[in-house]
Write a structure and sequence with these properties.
Blueprint (H helix, E strand, L loop, with lengths): L8 H13 L5 H12 L3 H13 L3 E6 L2 E6 L3 H17 L3 H10 L5 H15 L5
Helix pairs in contact: 1-3
Amino acid sequence: MKKPGRLSETETEVMRIIWELATPVTVSQLLSIFQESKGWKTSTLSTILSRLIEKGFLTKKMKGNVNYYDTNFSLHEYQRIEAQSLLTSLYGGNVKSFVAALVDDEGVTKEDIRDLQQWFKTMVGDTDE
């Protein structure tokens, strides 16, 4: 899969809604969500959707006289791409340094660490407690 462009905060917000809906969407569907909360007009949303197509996140297909926008990959796939990019750019691909930065920040609880230990054991096939 080709790596997509970077998302702005606004684009991320739109993509999260599209990923949640998990079906091709129309401008009017999205407008019903964003018009009240953001005050967006059709032209604003259309511009955002066009940028998302250019960046490789969406495809557009016309059915009748309505455009439908669909994702090119899942939220999970995008999270993996972004995590790998972050790991490479900030930590030189060193997973231990990345995890240490998270743990050293004190934002990770002992329960989180136990969960990670269990997950790592599962990943390497070590089921001994």
